[in-house]
């Protein structure tokens, strides 16, 4: 048998690579030239996670893209729905409300052009005060205390006031970015910050370096009462999260997912999902909460349909997407 020459093999290989390269270029013909990821205020986990994820996508896929400061989950849902943002981060509670037309930003408008990509992490609801405030439990929060709930219409601002009202706390409501609220707490302008953000929360980590703080946990009874009244899950903040904690702290949480406009090209979203799900080490370099940004956790989205590009990656890799979560 006559073997093909080295030149012939090289030529065949070069031709194959040229065809593959041409196909790849053709596959990108309908991709956006640039993209933006909706995050939240600076000082929160959404900003760090979302901006880092945007940079990862841009670098690995050779695109122009970045994160954008927004009001958080509710605004991200609205901006992705309208096409003003290609990608964003959201929480399952606001997502369910938006899909049902109950978003506080657009009452009566079902936001049905929003698709899920992959799970991020759980958002614990936690409370921080200065150590010298004398507040060591939720029951210690005095009547009329000024409490910072984060940006207006954020997950924290949507749910935490109602949670504290359920637990009998009377308060004055304040809004602002997490860094700004941290400064106000340190300066004595507010009494408490009620955080709903992935851990470690940058603003809390910064606070405990600069001053002594208390991180307040829910009692077992308070946790059970909140679980009964709201779409949240039990959660324990590991003691290793903050220098201040000496043992795990009881809390409640809500899952976060990345989202995309449902009309984005399937191949584009497939490549983003593939990059994000196959490189957890790079995702954790962005923020350590990405330890749970793994495909096994897609089960925690029971609300939004998955984008067809994401569905293709999951099914190719043995993960089943329920029919009612496919477009």
Automatic annotation (TrEMBL):
InterPro entries: TRAP_TAXI (IPR011852)
Superkingdom of the organism of origin: Bacteria
Keywords, in A-Z order: Signal
Signal peptide boundaries: 1-25
Keyword Signal found: yes
Record's keyword annotation contains Aminoacyl-tRNA synthetase: no
Designated name of the protein: TRAP transporter solute receptor, TAXI family
């Amino acid at each position: 048998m006559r073997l093909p020459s080295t030149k012939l093999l090289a030529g065949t290989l070069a031709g194959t690579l040229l065809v593959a390269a041409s196909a790849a270029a053709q596959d990108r013909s309908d991709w956006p030239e640039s993209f933006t990821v909706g995050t939240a205020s600076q000082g929160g986990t959404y900003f760090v996670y979302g901006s880092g994820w945007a940079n990862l996508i841009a670098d690995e896929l050779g695109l122009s893209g970045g994160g954008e400061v927004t009001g958080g989950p509710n605004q991200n849902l609205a901006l992705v729905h309208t096409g003003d943002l290609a990608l964003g981060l959201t929480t399952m509670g606001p997502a369910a409300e938006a899909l049902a037309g109950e978003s506080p930003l657009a009452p009566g408008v079902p936001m049905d052009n929003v698709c899920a990509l992959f799970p991020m992490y759980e958002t614990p609801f936690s409370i921080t005060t200065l150590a010298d405030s004398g507040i060591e439990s939720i029951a210690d929060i005095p009547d009329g205390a000024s409490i910072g709930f984060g940006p207006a219409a954020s997950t924290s601002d949507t749910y935490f006031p109602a949670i504290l009202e359920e637990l009998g706390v009377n308060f004055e409501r304040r809004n602002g970015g997490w860094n700004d609220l941290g400064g106000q707490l340190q300066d004595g302008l507010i009494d408490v910050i009620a955080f709903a953000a992935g851990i470690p929360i940058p603003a809390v980590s910064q606070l405990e370096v600069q001053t002594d703080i208390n991180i307040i946990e829910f009692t077992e009874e308070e946790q059970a009462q909140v679980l009964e009244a709201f779409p949240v899950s039990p959660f324990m903040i590991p003691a290793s999260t903050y220098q201040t904690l000496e043992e795990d702290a009881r809390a409640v949480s809500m899952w976060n997912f990345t989202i995309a406009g449902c009309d984005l090209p399937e191949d584009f979203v497939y490549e983003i999902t593939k990059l994000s799900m196959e490189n957890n080490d790079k995702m954790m370099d962005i923020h350590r909460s990405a330890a749970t940004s793994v495909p096994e956790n897609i089960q925690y989205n029971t609300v939004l349909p998955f984008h067809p590009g994401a569905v293709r990656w999951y099914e190719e890799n043995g993960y089943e997407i329920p029919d009612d979560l496919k477009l």
